[in-house]
Amino acid sequence: MDVSKQQEGEKRVQELLIAPLDLMGLTKPGTMRKEQFELMRRELRQKLAYMSPQGLMSLCEWCQQHPGGKERDRFPIALHVLDQARRIEPPEAGPSPLMLKVFAHEIGQKAISEGWAPELHVWLKGNRQWPGAWTLSKIRESADEGVRRLRDIESRLARVGEVSREEEQFRQKRRAAIRLCEDMVAS
User: Fold this and answer.
1) Do 75 and 25 sit in the same domain of this protein?
2) Is 122 found in the same domain as 49?
3) What is the pLDDT, as a whole number, of residue 1?
4) pTM here?
5) Number of domains in the chain
6) How far apart are CA 17 and CA 75, in angstroms?
7) Are residues 163 and 182 part of one domain?
């Protein structure tokens, strides 16, 4: 999801879920400080931005029927809201905001142009943090064999016009992984 769609989605969550629950008079959970409550609401806006208006309205109905607290007058905790949201409308398994930022950054552009973007993508999925200089050098190092093999296969294909089935499968798989990273920048 690109930045503008994320912002539109967060606004939609505020308008169709959080604001109606506020209007009902649901207050912060009793054990939560005000800053924690605001942080929880911000997290909900960010994590539920993918949902359609219909999905958000269904989620709002569920929240209205299942308020938190002994008196049933509290905002439901994020864990319960997110769990129900996944049941109503599962999120797409697209790239995270971090991946979008990394691949839009100079680091990601360099990874794509030099052919080590698939390894960077795998590392980001596993670590979920911005890679430092040392990490990037290790990612590049781990990608050397795949980059070199793809280059060899493509040069042989250009010269001879054919490669083995195994090499063609490797080439297609590697090109698809690079294309996935390129698509993150284009979206």
Assistant:
1) yes
2) no
3) 59
4) 0.55
5) 2
6) 11
7) yes
